[in-house]
Design brief:
- By secondary structure, the protein is mainly beta.
- 1% of the residues lie in helices and 42% in strands.
- The strands form four sheets. Strands 1, 5, 6, 7, 8, 11, 15, 16, 17, 18, 19, 22 and 23 form a 13-stranded antiparallel sheet that branches.
- The radius of gyration is 21 Å and the shape is globular.
Length: 307
Amino acid sequence: MGKSGKFTVYDEKKGQARGINVNMDAIREVNALGATVGASGKVKHSLQTFASQDFTIAEPEDVLMDSVPATKISFQSTISEIGKIRVDTYVMAGNGSVGPPGEKWAVAAGDLKWNIELFDWTWCDEATCGKGGGRRLQNGNGNNNGNGGNGKKDDETPAPTPTPTPTPTPSPGKGGSNGGNTEDVDATGEYIDLDITVKGLADMKPKGGKDSSYDLGDDMGLELSKKVSVDGAWVDMPTGYPLTTVKGSQTTFTFRFPKFTQRGLYDPLITGVSPVSESSPTPSPTPSPSLTPSPSPTPSPSPTPSP
């Protein structure tokens, strides 16, 4: 078992201080307008932090990823009794190509492929979350669902009904007097937004003018897809996603999963972790990459992810 939804990817030869930190920050179910739903009530349909989440860690196993040999480690957690999240990590042990149809990436031994899967989800609707169970900002600096006009989703509970007025009065947004007012909106969940922060070794910047390929520093890179698998069918993410917020070497990506019945899956890639020889059937102890929790124990030869 583990907590926090964090892991570090690094070359053992260089040490964890020269690694890439990946942190699952928050997850929200939203309606068709992008407003958070299921924010009130006993069972929440969102998490503002993964810090206290318990994750179950699976034992490493040797697998083939799109015909490329790899070592796989999975970790899984239950989200507020309404769904589950699983992250499968693959440390590539050979060269080849992996990724969604039409968006294949070249990989080398040592690269890290990881899949994010949401499943067993109970979606919000009027029956589960109540009529008007969603919230969004109104007249808040031109932002429909921001937190004080700063672009964050509003997750506060519905405003109390004033007395003696029989109808609810919109309450101020969390951003203060200039944050706008909230209003009840449709409680039907249509998407799940997942925020993940990646901290590189230098100010993260796009490579080759692309908004899906990023330089993490020290010859490492991040490759993102604009596709997501919905019940086994690959579809494009909604326009504007993945959403990117850059702060120096730390970048937060918001991935939007359309509504699914069985599962939704997304699969990014971290390249350049370590130059392992292609002839090696499995990652060699040196300089194979390691996947460690934060704070990390002493690096081990085999990848051990832990949130």
